[in-house]
Specification:
- With 257 residues, the chain is an alpha/beta fold.
- The protein is 40% helix and 13% strand.
- The protein is built from eleven helices and seven strands.
- Strands 3-4-2-5-1-6-7 form a seven-stranded mixed beta sheet, with helices on both faces.
- Helix 7 links the parallel strand 6 and strand 7.
- The two termini are 15 Å apart.
- The relative contact order is 0.19.
- The mean pLDDT is 97.
- The structure holds adenosine-5'-triphosphate and magnesium ion.
- Adenosine-5'-triphosphate binds next to helix 1 and helix 9.
């Protein structure tokens, strides 16, 4: 049975997609069968893998709203072992249409059930909101939420609301969900502020915070414009080394659990 994690933080631009995409690539390279689910209508995870969701026949909208089997929507990527459930702008409609659906919070969870045995890891990239797509991802995330935190001013702003939302989902929708990991991203060793954020997050979340810190690295920001993961684009960069280490740390945690 696959481990299922949601990558969530309603704050925008904190590294959710960069982390979900590159962690997926390194988990796949480690021999794990990985499904990356792009649950964001911005489709950044899809385009980061060099795929244009808008020209595909189907996207995540179809299984969520039209009950199309997910297996018919999943596509392969440039990486062996890494498959993608793509997003496209049409997914924005799902956020609206879900509102009036029965069991609206459970659509993503139910849609994943038939493929859960086919993968070792399923990573859900969420949009920067706490709307129904994110709530669906939290409900499906059997192994918890991984929260990327940008090492910047106001990094912890809004975490309380995310925490409350996760709590509500745990009480009502998915008793297994909690914050299982926090990833510090865009760390800049030259600024005191970056170090302050690291210390603050580690103080509040000593168990959850990954030891691996993702540095600010220009290669990480360039890779998506070439439709490549950091593993394909710049495997010797500091960003690549960090995501490789994060994948190993996650696997070690899972092995210890
Ligand atoms: P959104 O909330 O819009 O979905 P996000 O949380 O998914 O955003 P990303 O898209 O991963 O965040 O990152 C935001 C921007 O920062 C992107 O342009 C990305 O390439 C860049 N970025 C992410 N991580 C790093 C890093 N470690 N070093 C340099 N640039 C980074
Ligand atoms: Mg994103």
């Amino acid at each position: 049975m696959a481990r299922i994690y949601a990558f969530a933080n309603q704050k925008g631009g904190v590294g959710k997609t960069t982390t979900a995409v590159n962690l997926s690539a390194y988990l796949a390279a480690a021999g794990k069968r990985v499904l990356l689910v792009d649950a964001d209508p911005q489709a950044n995870a899809t385009s980061s893998l060099g795929i244009d969701g808008s020209i595909l026949p189907y996207c995540l909208y179809d299984p969520i709203i039209n009950r199309k089997p997910l297996a018919e929507v999943i596509i392969s990527t440039a990486h062996a072992n890494l498959e993608l459930a793509p997003s496209a702008p049409a997914l924005a409609g799902a956020e609206v249409e879900l509102v009036s659906m029965f069991a609206r919070e459970h659509q993503l969870r139910k849609m994943l059930e038939p493929v859960i045995a086919a993968f070792d890891h399923i990573l859900l990239d969420c949009p920067p909101s706490l709307g129904l797509l994110t709530v669906n991802a939290l409900t499906a995330a059997r192994d918890g939420v991984i929260v990327p935190i940008q090492c910047e001013y106001l990094a912890l702003e809004g975490l309380g609301r995310l925490w409350q939302t996760i709590q509500l989902v745990r009480e009502h929708l998915n008793p297994r969900v909690s914050i299982s990991g926090m990833v510090l991203t865009m760390f800049d060793p030259r600024t005191n502020l970056s170090m302050q954020v690291v210390n603050e997050v580690r103080k509040h979340f000593p168990e959850q915070t990954f030891r691996t810190i993702i540095p600010r690295n220009v290669r990480l920001s360039e890779a998506p414009s070439y439709g490549q993961t950091i593993l394909a684009y710049a495997p010797t960069s500091t960003g690549a080394a960090a995501y490789a280490a994060l994948a190993q740390e996650l696997l070690a945690r899972e092995g210890a659990a």
